[in-house]
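Recall from the previous lesson that a structure prediction takes nothing but the amino acid sequence as input. Here we apply that procedure to Sugar phosphate isomerase/epimerase from Bradyrhizobium vignae. The sequence below is the only information supplied.
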Amino acid sequence: MTLPVLGAHTFGFTWDCIAEEAIERLAAAGYRAIQLMATPPHFDPWREDAARMRRIRALIERHDLSLLALDLASSDINLASPSRDVVDFAVSSYAAAIDRAAELGARWICVGSGRRHALLARANDRLMPSFRDAFARIHDKAERAGVPIILENHPQGLLASAADISAFLDAGGYASMPVIYDVANAFAIGEDPVDGLEVLWPRLGIVHLSDAPKGHWRHDPLGSGAIDFAAIAGLLTRRGYAGQIVLEILSDRPLHDLDEGAAALKRHGLAFSLAG
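The prediction returns the following tokens.
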């Protein structure tokens, strides 16, 4: 039986250390699949340093790691802005991130659907044409670079729900594009993560796991909030999920809480591999 691979995101280390140190710490802890947050001071995708790219790639290869994806912080860019200049900056930022992902040997570039103003009526309908165009531009760049897109749900984005993502990909001709389904992002909009996983099941490339209190958007340690990880683990086990699972936890003790999260998944009966 092929087991899902459990990996870790460096997001929790963003303010504590540079990417190289986070990678070293995760490798020492036994993780072999990682996802890299591309935001200063952790890792700056806008300031190309060819020597540093070579050092990071050598570090990844020395530890036999799989770099699943490179992420831009949603606070740094916005593909759902009504401003053309803001959208153009976001597209150029993704272009830079795609180049860095190619240099580092990442499997995917993670793309979100921007940050629309939740208080503006009909915001999605008004912003969607601009987003579709921007997404197509990023997709073309990613295809040329050989680093395919993996699309993530985001509670502030135009594609917040599993159904929204599925409809967008089908309508846009991206039916084969994989998806990151973040259970905490889904929980923040009131979506049952088990239902969302079912909707996106054929498209799942990565499942992001973290916890949150009901009604809040957080990425807390597993078991500290209200997300039903027993139900999620049960679904993944029952359906024979064999893709990537990434713990994305923001806390004062990121490595400790990543390891505790792995232990919690085992207690819920989820078997996994750490080999990327």
